[in-house]
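Example record

Each entry pairs one chain with its bound ligand, MU-OXO-diiron.
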Amino acid sequence: MLTRKINDNVYMFRQVDWELKEFHGSIYPLDNGTTYNCYLIIDEQVTLVDTIESEYSDILIKHLRNVLGTRIIDNIVVNHVEPDHSGGFLRIYEEFGVKNVYTSNAGKKAMQSQFFKDVEYNSVKTGDEINTGKFNLMFYLTPFVHWPDNMVTFLKEEKILFSNDAFGQHITSTNTFAKECGIEMVLDSAKEYYANIVLPYNSRVVKVLNDLASLEIKMILPAHGVGYKDCIPNIIEAYTKWSSGEAKKKVIIVYDSIWGNSKNISLTIGETLVDFGFEVKRYQLSKMRPSTILKELLDAEYLLIGSGNHNGSMMPSVAEFIERIDGCNLKDKKGLTFGSYGWSKNYSKKLESRVSEAGIELLGEGVYINYVPTPEDSNSIQEKIISIFENEI
Ligand code: FEO
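Structure tokens for the complex follow.
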């Protein structure tokens, strides 16, 4: 665990979990793990903002003791109840004789359900403040960014926003701030995080950004990854863009293919659209992480989905991906279906229907070819794609 002194009064404790391969279940695989960050504010009263995964409780206690000596922790703020930020709550609460716990009303209910322990939680709402001596902490509820209980805490005098999951990323660096890692790389990681954790709740993000707009924020300290200092406008602008659904002339083509025929159709479609001036990214669903595709889809206007006929339906990897995007509340995405079939094309109706149900506006009838696409078929695919997309330029 790292202890970092953010300034004279604020400390960060960061546990790098290099071994974590899946974040929030198998839906979000990780290459380099993640970090869990919590923050200590030293004042007449000592306040800990969030805790940690239960397995890291003992090491956190040791690091807190190194800073606090024999001092107690007066307050714990539970910005979010998920176990990666509150699994160690009870250990810390009991070890440091904590007097007050502050969380949202939804947080209070979830904490009581999670720990079956009679802790007295103080429910807070947006605008509520506590005074810890020379400092004031103000709370902002951020429900569904990304759980019902989420909130953020603003240290007014230092202008620091403790944002918990919001603005997080999986940068497992020992650096403290984004600029030390390179802001582009951090924003790319934050984009994947947003697409997989926050995307279904876009409208809530818009509200949160509006609520926070009046604050002069000098630092954002999230509970995963590195903090933001000197680049606050970059991450705020990125969240504004992602939550608005703003998209560019970018086409995501996803498919799966049994004998390579649907893949060939995807190639013809992709090359045609590239020649037309679109940015195109093409993925075989059985070989690419959906979590990465979601990141690319975030700012794409078009999603084209293809499949071979598998037992009278779409291929399982395609069905699974459509189910995934169905839960993302995608808006204003347009698309098309395609595929190669053998003895029956009936499955295309099911594919079109599921894509449409998942919120993709179909631009026309899908592109389906019997067996292996011939050169003539490729020409007709090109013509059809051009006729559809010439209206989109
Ligand atoms: Fe980082 Fe929603 O937990």
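The longest strand covers residues 248-256.
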